Amino acid sequence: MNKKYLITTWGCQMNEHDSEKIEGILNSLGYISTDNKESANLIIYNTCLVRENAELKVYGNLGELKGLKRKNPDLIIAVCGCMMQKEEVRSIIKEKYSHVDLIFGTHNFHKLPELLESYDQKRNMLIDVWNDSPDIVENIPTKRKYDFKAFINIMYGCNNFCSYCIVPYTRGREKSRNPEDILAEAIKLSKEGYKEITLLGQNVNSYGKTLENQVTFAQLLYMLNEIEELERIRFMTSHPKDLSDELIDAIKNCDKVCNHLHLPFQAGSNKILKIMNRKYTKEKYLDLVKKIRKEIPDVSLTTDIIVGFPGETKEDFEETLDVVRKSNFDSAFTFLYSVREGTPAAKMSEQVPDEIKHERFQRLLDTLHPISLKRNKELINREFKVLVEDISKNDDTKLSGRTDTNRLIHFKGNKELISEIVNVRVTDAKTWTLEGEIVE
Ligand code: 5AD
Ligand code: SF4
User: Fold this and answer.
1) Is a pLDDT exceeding 90 seen at residue 207?
2) Residue with the nearest Cα to atom 6 of ligand 1?
3) What's this model's pTM, rounded to 2 decimal places?
4) pLDDT at 394
5) Which residues line ligand 1 (CB under 6 A)?
6) pLDDT tens-digit map of 6-49
7) Fewest 10 Å CB contacts: which of 61, 97, 320, 440?
């Protein structure tokens, strides 16, 4: 009988895609997936360290597995991902969660078959975490969540060391994948019927710098745009400091590259941006937004914003609101600053009290939401090509999908349309979503 695994993933798209690869590896070993803990032979938690609440959830979930392990001693409990890269976390697990069997990290999950075998021989907690990876490992089997849209890694790691961020410590130094390998993966996927690819990297704008024969991110987009069967190319995340005119031109010129840019600005005050080590100013960011909107008029702009970074005064926060008002973001991911031990910001003395952080956070949302609503309302009566992704979560008579500008839209239609691209006219707009109807 096939062994069963259950995998739970926290965190970003990079983690989600790692989990798709872990699933692919397990399938190749004969495992099948289950969503029932009781019947699983192997439970894997793929963890995130970017903010404290993600970390606490993992500990909570691990605690809950204690009873299950007692009832079923043969169950293997594995924990992997960003949290495991941190020694302190591994010590806590050794001490307080001794029912965990296997710990591995972000750089060696491709070794899972060997790790499972070694664990099987000793049946003692096995810890194997690498600090970085010497090479990029190609051809890891992958079980993708969807059969019409797919993630493709184009680079790993990050060299930016923004002072609040733990990612450079958990994902290692920046490494770009060879363009030939990326192209081969994209061509294979498009031949299998995939319509949309999302290129993943912590800072895709600096793609290519570690390659022997340098290729820029814009050049990579032009190459991918030539793949005939492919319909859409997305990418995440862009760092404002590295966003070139060449890239803006590529988005404009490549018909398959979606009109969407996720361009985190994090904070509006130049003082805070400097301590964050972001390497741009508020003025530069606003100029960039202006240029992008001029060159690509229909572009959808989204961003990430952190509230309550150490030393953020009332005036600094007003600068953040000012950027929000001037940039007309379509939507934004907003975060309360979270202390991450091991980063420079964690040692800064002027931490902002929680109460003030929450108050500012609410003001930020109150500023952002009417702008999103206004942006969405401007789309009423316009027509968009929509990739149909699912049955709508709130109304099972409707379908949901995304425009090329990455807006979620709901509309009536037959579920056989899932995975197809259809024309939809916008009939109504809310802050987060659009309503529409299919047009022939
Ligand atoms: N606290 C709050 N938000 C953070 N991010 C990264 N590190 C932290 C932190 N310590 C946010 C940034 C980044 C997004 C992925 O997570 O906005 O762009
Ligand atoms: Fe973190 Fe900055 Fe790298 Fe993004 S660019 S992963 S925020 S260090």
Assistant:
1) yes
2) 165
3) 0.96
4) 85
5) 50-51, 164-165, 264, 266, 304, 306, 335, 337-338, 340
6) 999 999 999 999 999 999 999 999 999 999 999 999 999 999 99
7) 440
Atom of ligand 1 nearest to the CA of 304: 17
Ligand 1 atom at minimum distance from 336 CA: 2
Probe target for ligand 1 pocket from 158, 309, 335, with the most ligand atoms within 8 Å of CB: 335
How many angstroms separate the CA atoms of 154 and 199, rounded? Answer: 6
**239 CA to centre of ligand 1 in angstroms:** 13
Of all protein residues, whose CA lies closest to atom 2 belonging to ligand 1? 337
Structure tokens at 319: 């600068």
Residues 257 and 280: beta-carbon distance below 8 Å: no
Would the CB of 160 count as within 6 Å of ligand 2? yes
User: Distance, CA 378 to ligand 1 centroid (Å)?
Assistant: 30
CB neighbour list of residue 236: distance below 8 Å, 6 or more residues apart: 13, 198, 199, 200, 201, 204, 262
Which domains, from first to last, does the chain contain?
Answer: 4-128 (3.40.50.12160), 144-258 (3.30.750.210), 383-438 (2.40.50.140)
Q: Which atom of ligand 2 is nearest to the CA of 161?
A: 8
Number of the ligand 1 atom closest to the C-alpha atom of 266: 17
